[in-house]
Specification:
This protein is an alpha/beta fold. The chain contains six helices and six strands; from the N terminus they run E-H-E-E-H-E-H-H-E-H-E-H. The mean pLDDT is about 90. Bound molecules: guanosine-5'-diphosphate (GDP).
Length: about 180
């Protein structure tokens, strides 16, 4: 590993409805913190993070792009998707609408991104499910959808940090696996 800081650089994109927690996931990943009242006009656009995959003895540099407010215009361009190896498709487990809209986001990803892109469905804000009345999307329903569409799946909380690194790591492992298989 001498002189090598990382073995691979992967571009990741984060899509999904406004307010599901995309910027918060990125801030949690890269900065280990959570902002209860982020300024919506100052969406975090970019974050970089080294992820190590010990069983492969590999370090991967993630370059993550957030839609940073453009989601309301559905104006995400081809250049945003170009070269992406991974995609987080995020919904809010307390918003059924945001879950249903992941179908539209997925269609957009499939239209513009590389067909081999690894996509992970991320049900964010699970910390709010302590109050069981708030959950609007069951884990089982999302799991079935993910399986049907060939997506990885995880439930996360940018607030507590639960499963945030795991979401990215699972996607990285899947991408490395595709590289090994020559896909
Ligand atoms: P974005 O528009 O998808 O980038 O969403 P933001 O990251 O701006 O988050 C929208 C709102 O949800 C903010 O008030 C966040 O503090 C809040 N939020 C984001 N993630 C979580 C989470 O995991 N749990 C809770 N309780 N709130 C969250």
């Amino acid at each position: 590993m001498s002189g090598v800081n990382w073995h691979y650089v992967f571009k990741f994109i984060i899509t999904g409805d406004a307010a599901v927690g995309k910027s918060s996931l990125l801030v949690r990943l890269t900065d280990q913190r959570f902002l209860a009242n982020p300024d919506p006009t100052l969406g975090v656009e970019f974050g970089s993070k080294l992820i190590s995959i010990p069983e492969e003895n590999k370090v991967v540099k993630l370059q993550c792009w957030d839609t940073a407010g453009t989601e309301s215009f559905r104006s995400i361009t081809r250049s945003y998707y170009r070269g992406a190896a991974g995609c987080l498709l995020v919904y809010d487990v307390t918003s059924r609408k945001s879950f249903l809209n992941t179908r539209t986001w997925l269609a957009d990803v499939r239209e513009h991104a590389d067909p081999h892109l690894t996509c992970i469905l991320v049900g964010n804000k699970v910390d709010l499910c302590d109050e069981s009345t708030k959950r609007q999307v069951s884990t089982e329903e999302a799991e079935i959808f993910a399986k049907e569409e060939g997506l990885l799946f995880v439930e996360s909380s940018a607030k507590s940090g639960q499963n945030v690194e795991k979401a990215f790591e699972d996607a990285v492992r899947d991408i490395l696996d595709k590289i090994h298989r020559g896909v």
